[in-house]
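name: query_chain
kind: protein
chains: 1
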Amino acid sequence: MPSPGLLTRWSGPRFLCLLAVRVMVVAATVSKGCEAPGKPKCFRNNSSSHIYTCEWGRSSSATHVTYDLLFNTTEPPFHVVNEMSWRDLPTNRIYLDEDQLIKNRKVSIVVTAHAGNASCTYNSTTVVLSTVVKLPEPVIMAALWSDHKLKLTWPSQGDSASAEVLVRHVENKTQTWSHEVKKETNVYSVLLEGLETQRAYQVQVRQRSTQVSTSLWSGWSANLTVPAEILQSPDVELKTITEVDRGIRQLVFTWKAVPPAAQTGGVNYTLTYSPCCPCAVKEKAWCQITVPSLNHTIHVTNSAFNLSIRAVNTAGASSRGYVNVAAKPDQDLKACEKNVTFHGKHVEWYEFKEGGTAKERTLRKERKDFVRYVFRKYHCGHKGPKTVEMCLWYKKEHVPLVEPLSFSGSQTDTALNLSWRPIPLEARQGFISHYTLCHTKHTKPPEQEPSQEECRNLNASETTFRLENLQPDSRYNITLAGATSMGPGPQALLSIKTFRSEKHPEGNLPVWISLGLLVTFFGASILGSLLVKRLKSKILPPVPEPVILYPALIQADNEELEQRETLDEVSIHQPVLGGEHHWFEDREEDMDQSKTLIGTDEDQTQQGSRDSFESPGDQEEVLYRNGLVFDMKAEELRSGDQNTSTL
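structure:
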């Protein structure tokens, strides 16, 4: 029985307080420390590994917990092997060598957790350790679109495996994951079909070995975002070209961005171009750079430039877009000097074509004789190439193959204006140093006057020339040939005659005399004929014809009529020669006298008619006109007879 002092000592408020604290500590220890650990698992990472990983679950609320791991055999002899027990482990995972374990017999795995004075044990698990494999969770996955299919790959662990994939759209993260199990052999990859290539996805993968009987699923990989497939190549264009140095151009390229779904996770643009600077040692060098922007500036030479671009995201790359920049004609280039060094790292040759356009870059071993090349030497700086030397060059020269083209001319009396077109570049076979122009006067026959040829050299850039101090009305034979350092080539021939000189009209005198005599002859003939007619009319005036009456016709009309013709007066007027009056005054006097005679005849006729005839039908009518007398009655009778015969 306890003593009264002891009871007094452990009674009262102090005892109660200590008891309460003790109860709380024990309760906390029991509630937290006695939580049983999770199911233990011991496995290898692949079927060929010699290391086992043993792990088990632990409470998230437990603190200061230690673990004991024990392996008991389930087959005789039944005993606990001291070497197969590990105590006071601070974590819920341990790595053991296969030599420390019984791996080919069934063993039970027991894990005990200790939290303070409390202990909790998980029911044992029986396994054969050699048949258990758990592959690691997939890491460093790659997702690539190919032919509208998504292929996921990750590092191989050596065993054939099957995989499980979770897929959902990026824009809808609350969407339920869709499962898909794929079985592959020796290849750690899966191919997903039926996805929308223009949408972005999130994927997760786990795997397990198919080479052992007891295979455990690996953990899930981290979420991987897969952007949409880039279906079209970038639309690239050359924005500006700027001349920054002699033979050096600055090119600015721009292109359009890919669709937003393809930009998920980032997108870059890979540019590949040739030639480039800094240059490689090899003749055919090319450069490749990756930029995140939508434009890029490159410094290049005047030669032809080729660039390709493609968009790249984490799920693949687009097809290539191309742009070709034509070579810039190298104008005003001169022949290379003799002291130019043609060796070095940054030198290039381009075949020079008609109009100054260069072809593709030519290798040293491919250079030909008699072909013009552009030689360019430059060094590479941080901003691109910089020209050091640029000139025209022939490996070997020869005389031109053809003569100058379209050789023609126009003439005056003492000069010839000549023109031609240059020899084609492909036919020059060297630098044209000058043109040789020669002319010779043509003689008929040549042996009468020896011809002397005169020649002169013209500048290679000239295409016209005026040949002066020539003789008028003379034919000249002219030749023109282009010459290189190896000599002149074929000649172009022209035969042309100068005009007659305007300063010496005697050369055309016979023609003018002939024309003058012809005009004078015709003029004199016309004037003479007019004068003869006028004199004839003056000297020999026309004599009137007498009126012949036909009695038979008159008798047919009136047989009893007697025809009587009485000429009362006849006046004959002779022209006066040598008088002071003119011929037209005599003509007027004749006309007056004719009128007087006509009037007198009419009066006498009327008076005679009254005396001789009683009927008006028997009256005789006579008309005098222009010196002639006409019987009007006879004319009427004649007309009546004609009408009667017609009827």
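note: The chain has seven helices and 38 strands.
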